[in-house]
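Working notes for the structural subgroup meeting. M.R. asked for a predicted model of this chain before we commit to crystallization trials. I am recording the input and output together here so anyone reviewing the notebook later can reproduce the run.

Input as submitted:
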Amino acid sequence: MSLHLPPANHPARERFDRQHLVEVAHPSNRQKLPTVRQAVNSARQMLKDGSAVAVFTFCLNAEGDLKLIRVNWRGGVSTVWNFGTL
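Returned structure, recorded in token form:
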């Protein structure tokens, strides 16, 4: 497995900790990754109290790609980076 990291000057680099990415992507932890829908629902719950304007989270899409997504306070969802298939 080889993850595709964003270039050093890409804004996505500021949105995650590389050590956390290594931990999340480890084969023993992959089954713990939420689906996109689960990640969005969880982020929306966190945003309800109004203490943040966005949540960045790792998730797996239906194709098995590890993604970093952003969920904003209005409920919008966008892919920040696709690390590739695990």
